Structure formats: structure tokens, C-alpha cells
Description:
single chain
Amino acid sequence: MKLLPRLLCLLLLSMLACSPGDKAFTDQEVTTKDDAFRKSVTTGAFVKLSQGYTYYEFENQDADTVLVMVHGFSVPSYIWDSTFYAAKQRGYGALRYDVFGRGYSDNPDVVYDAALFSGQLTELLDALKLTGKVDLMGLSYGGRIISAFAYQHPERVRNLIYVDPAGFETIPKDSLYPAPVIDEEITAFKKSDSYPNMAKGQMSDFYDSIPFAGWDKRYAEVMKFKGFVRALLSTRRNSPSMEVEHRKIADAGIPTFAFWGEHDTVVPIVNVQANLLDRLPRIELFILPKAGHLPHMEQTRMFNSILFDQILCCEH
């Protein structure tokens, strides 16, 4: 964004946030992730990394094959419930964690980009002494994270598994990056109509949301943590092109796979398939019917059959 339009944009946001006639709003961010909060969490564990505490769950830690599950843009690691417990039951090492700014992990005052999240993943694996190859799976924005990690550490990835991933869209290379987020923008978003509807909006990720009644209520708990909106806005703003990373992954010969819900409206396959196949020409693509953005939840049996019986079981 050019300087003048950006200044005008910031001025407008400031006016929206501070004008006397503004409508009142309820700030849902009321909980600080401090020591007392972490002691109240009865599941998983925390490890302190360079940018703050990371929450994780790790089952079957002595298993030869470890599946690392990276969640997406805003819903934390509980989104992997069905896959996590299936991997645990089958005897695989199952590791899931909350990326910074989401769930129980810290919300540091930094730029939220793929470099931050890749660094978090690297430090987490090191802290858990996982120095060998892992099977790395990323959902939605998690696709950006696993791409960044595989680009930096191809020798640490056995299989790279995308699930309706972000990062394959075409993004102008002259986009402003890194881009800060100011307090006025956060306030303006919280005063918008989008903020109170964020939880309810999670239901649109499904092709058929009826079997998942109550899913949105779980998300409402996520919104209570201070710094959540800032992390989301910063992540959205700092998502440049990943074409270079994808092409290096292809050159490294890492086996790559992608699941896609046929009816995904968040990252429609028709919008990115050309880039996907051009950048990763050897990728194996599985399009799951009657599924939206979360095929591992809507088509669990089909998803697990492919994941465990065709991908994780074999050398590629």
C-alpha cells in the first residue's frame, strides 16, 4: 500500500474508533495468559520458548512415526480432535499445539507471520527432542506454517500433508510486509459487526453444519484471551507469497499430499489448484466429497483411511 492511501486509511480507522457517536461494544478479551491461567489448564503441557509459552499435547512419545498437527488461522489445536485421537489409538506419536496468539499459547507483541510460527514449531520440536523426521500436517493457515518449516528444514520432514491449505493463492510481490497493526485498527474491528459474529461464523466452515451443533460455542471461549484480535489482524496482514518456499519444497523431493473438501468456500480448490500443481507438481491430491473447509471432521472415516493407510503407513 502506498504511503498516502495508508495514512488516509489509518485516519479513517482512527475516526471510526474515536468519534463521539460511536456505538458501544463489549470487549470479549478479558483473560490474561499468566502463570495463574496456565496453572488452571488441566490438559496438555506448556513449554517456554523464545517468544513465550507454548501449549501442546503429545501422546505416544516413543513411537517411531510422529504426526505433528498444525491448526489454522484462528481455531486452536482442538480442531484436530478426531485426527489426534485416531493417531493416538493407532500407536502413532501424536503432537498438536496452539500457535502463538491462539488457544492457550502466549500472545506476544510481535509481527505474526510464517517466520514467527515456523520458529515456534522448530523450537517446540527441539524442546521435545524430536530431532528426526516427522510427518507434518497443516490445516488452512497451518499450510503456510508447514511450508515455511519445510522450506527451512527439509531434512526434518518425512511427509508434508496439507489440508485445505492457505498459501497457494497468488499474492502481489510488492505487498507491504511486514505491516504493523495499530490499536485504532483493533478497536475499529471490535466495534464492527464482524466481531460479535466471529464465533457463529465458524459454522460456515462446514458443508453441513447440523452434525456440529455447538461448535461455535467452543470458539467463544477462545475469544476471551487478551491479544486475540491483534494476533488475527497481524497474521492476516503479514501473509506474503509463498511461491519460493513451495518450489524449494518440490526441489527437495519431500513427499507431499493435499486433502481438500469439495465444497470448501474458505479456500476453494478451483481458485488455487493451478498454483498448487504448478509449484508442487508431484503432489498427490485427494478431494473429499460432501465436505467443506474441515474434511477431517466431516469425512473422518475417509480422511483417516487415506492418512493412515496410504500415507503414514508407507515409504514414498
